[in-house]
TrEMBL record:
SUPFAM superfamilies reported for this sequence: GckA/TtuD-like
Protein name as annotated: Glycerate kinase
Similarity comment: Belongs to the glycerate kinase type-2 family.
GO cellular component terms, A-Z: cytoplasm
Keyword ATP-binding recorded: yes
The reaction(s) this protein catalyses: (R)-glycerate + ATP = (2R)-3-phosphoglycerate + ADP + H(+)
PANTHER family in alphabetical order: GLYCERATE KINASE
Keyword presence, DNA repair: no
Organism: Owenia fusiformis
């Protein structure tokens, strides 16, 4: 069988290398001189390989579709339905969740919050049925309409659902609607008894959808604290550390409120490393953070003077008392926290799809963090690194330039051993006539200096486009190499925009300039959504709509060498 890359012999006994029909190196089998097709030629046709003609590389648009296809595959791998079904097992009136069992007697209450929980609710309903008594779900504004319009009604709750769906946090910003829902979830938790099960469904975006500031702190003061920290480049971990100290339900608050009921929490992670206490600010996880840490973060980010006085005074009082305002006498023995979905699962699926498309996948990182613009520059340089790895055998000065670039990439945080592994992957790709697909996952941040509209993935992509323009100024190179980059959020919403992310290639910046746009200006103003919406008619935006899941972001870099000979199969 032909798998990925193999060879056939023509009628003269010459071996002809034949990749699969989706490979980035679609070669044509040369017809034999006979009147009829040979069996080998017929087999080529069977596998979608044209017979006759010359070499035809994939177009720029086709490689772009490969990147989008890999991204979509990653998202589909972490949709909530199967994950919840796998986690909840019901038999003979007993609910099994991993090693724990719970007696069912129409005693299940549901609390859900996050961008992906609406689909998790639907799955829980299909498993538990009439065992559910009631429930409340805090979900993103307009998500029900978006899912219907996207043909994803299967993610919506059943018509006879006992779970009340409440929308809020428009553009992922906590608002009064989300706060009202959060307090309803709090009161529900206070009412459950020792005979009840509180099933908590949590996903990324849960922090914004569960705002519950401790009086006298107001919602506006919480929002201002988050805004100031975010503008200074605070990570999601740092933001959630502060939220846990300032809100009722976070940092284990929901679990404490539900005591003595049994609490089962299914978690879809959107935080690097999957720390349970930081995902949605850990509403059912014991809180290791302190008020002192929060005050220290304000100093570290140089925002202490900009934080609302009510917030600082509240934290200082906590510090002075050397204790937490939250009840500390309630343990967490009644709680079971289960991680059901992660970025790693999405990356594994992306890697598998890349193989099917004719690439050798290389996972750069599952914890990409730091400044989005700097990450974009790194990816632009990685594209150049792969190109030079392919070109070393063709240009005498390529090795010297490659060594210099290698040092630059190491200084940007990629370990030398990791870069050696990438180089080995490039050599294998060249030997087998395949492209290279570099994949990473994580969540970067944006140091907001302008007043534009954008998101971290669009910022990362535009920065990568700028570096790709610099690295590939020789247009002749692009006749022989196809390069495409994509950065997108698995939740389908990058910042307060309608896009999940964006793509980039070495030609994008030239096209923008021809169309009268100054890319650097848009990057400086953090106005990347405006840039991508205008250039090429918005063709480089990645728009999925809200996906119903959220496991952080995915980056995909494809590099193809069109004129390398296909060498064999492995």
């Amino acid at each position: 069988a032909i798998y990925g890359m193999s060879y056939l012999s023509n009628s003269k006994g010459h071996k002809i290398w034949c990749p699969n029909k989706e490979s980035p190196h679609r070669r044509y089998l040369i017809r034999s001189s006979g009147k009829h097709e040979s069996p080998h030629e017929q087999q080529c046709r069977h596998y979608g390989i044209n017979v006759g003609g010359e070499y035809e590389p994939l177009s720029r648009e086709e490689i772009g579709q490969h990147a989008r296809g890999i991204f979509n595959t990653a998202i589909n791998a972490v949709l909530p339905s199967q994950m919840v079904h796998d986690a909840l097992q019901v038999k003979d009136g007993v609910l099994s969740v991993k090693e724990q069992t719970y007696e069912l007697k129409k005693n299940v209450h549901i609390s859900a919050f996050g961008k992906a929980v609406i689909g998790m609710v639907r799955s829980a309903e299909s498993v538990l049925g009439d065992e559910i008594v009631q429930g409340i779900a805090s979900v993103p504004f307009n998500i029900q309409n978006v899912l219907r319009e996207a043909g994803k009604s299967d993610l919506l709750p059943l018509d006879n659902s006992k779970v009340k769906i409440c929308e809020g946090a428009k553009n992922n910003i906590p608002d009064e609607a989300a706060q009202t829902t959060a307090m309803a979830i709090y009161h529900q938790a206070q009412q459950v008894t020792a005979d009840d099960i509180l099933l908590v469904l949590v996903s990324g975006g849960g922090s914004a959808l569960l705002p519950s500031p401790i009086p006298p702190i107001t919602l506006n003061e919480m929002a201002e604290t988050t805004r100031v920290m975010g503008k200074a480049g605070a990570t999601i971990q740092e933001l959630n550390t502060v939220r846990k100290q300032l809100e009722i339900l976070k940092g284990g608050g929901l679990a404490r409120a539900a005591f003595p009921a049994k609490v089962v929490t299914l978690i879809l992670s959107d935080v690097i490393g999957d720390p349970l206490d930081l995902i949605a600010s850990g509403p059912t996880v014991e809180d290791p953070s302190t008020a002192a840490q929060c005050l220290g973060l304000f100093q570290k980010l140089n925002v202490h003077e900009d934080i609302p006085n009510t917030v600082k005074n509240f934290l200082q009082e906590k510090l002075d008392k050397s204790q937490c305002d939250k009840d500390s006498d309630v343990g967490f023995d009644h709680v079971q926290n289960v991680l059901v979905g992660t970025n790693n699962i999405a990356i594994d699926a992306a890697s598998s799809r890349a193989i099917q498309l004719g690439y050798l996948p290389f996972v750069l990182s599952t914890s990409l963090a730091g400044d989005a613009s700097e990450a974009g520059v790194l990816y632009g340089k990685l594209a150049e690194f792969v190109y030079l790895s392919f070109a070393c055998g063709k240009k005498s000065d390529s090795n010297r330039v490659l060594c210099q670039l290698e040092m630059d990439i190491v200084q940007r945080g990629v370990e030398k051993a990791k870069l050696n592994q990438l180089l080995d992957t490039c050599h294998k790709a060249q030997a087998y006539g395949k492209g290279v697909c570099i994949i990473s996952g994580g969540e970067t941040t944006v140091d907001v200096k302008g007043s534009g509209k954008g998101g971290r993935n669009q910022e990362l992509a535009l920065s990568a486009a700028m570096q790709l323009r610099h690295s590939f100024q020789d247009l002749d190179i692009l006749k022989h190499y196809g390069i495409q980059f994509l950065s997108g959020g698995t939740d389908g919403q990058d910042g307060p925009t309608e896009a999940a992310g964006a793509t980039a290639d070495p030609e994008l910046i030239r096209e923008a300039e021809v169309q009268g746009f100054n890319p650097q200006k848009y990057l400086d103003q953090n106005d990347t959504f405006t840039f991508y919406s205008a250039v090429n008619g918005g063709a480089n935006l990645v728009t999925t709509g809200l996906t119903g899941t959220n496991v952080m972001d995915i980056q995909i870099l494809l590099v193809n060498c069109f004129d390398q000979m296909d060498k064999g199969s492995f």
